[in-house]
Design a protein that fits this description.
This protein is mainly α. The protein has 7 helices and 2 strands. The protein has one domain: uncharacterized protein sp1917 domain (Helicase, Ruva Protein, domain 3), CATH 1.10.8. This is DUF2200 domain-containing protein.
Amino acid sequence: MKRAYDHDQRIASMTFAFVYPHLLAKVEKKGRTKEELHQVIKWLTGFNEKALQKHIKDELTFEQFFHKAKLNPNAHLITGVICGYRVEEIANPLTQKVRYLDKLVDELAKGRKMEKVLRAG
């Protein structure tokens, strides 16, 4: 149990600015664009380009980042395994939101159609 708590705390204190370049590199390496990554982030969080850039500049932790986010009402449709965890079964709400983002970025990088990534149809 302590291990899960430590994992959740580590995720909460990690900054979005630290993780963002890795997300961008992952999608660009697979032929996707920065704009597509931002579209995915906007869909999940509601952050427009200006807000996203401010949050990166301000080096918000994931806890702060998702506290400011307006999570998409269809986020619960994100299912599957990421980093060895089924996202729909993650008990900690913040960790689940971060894994939602991981899952969406993973699907984008794997070439899934944008309408499928964004749970549009």
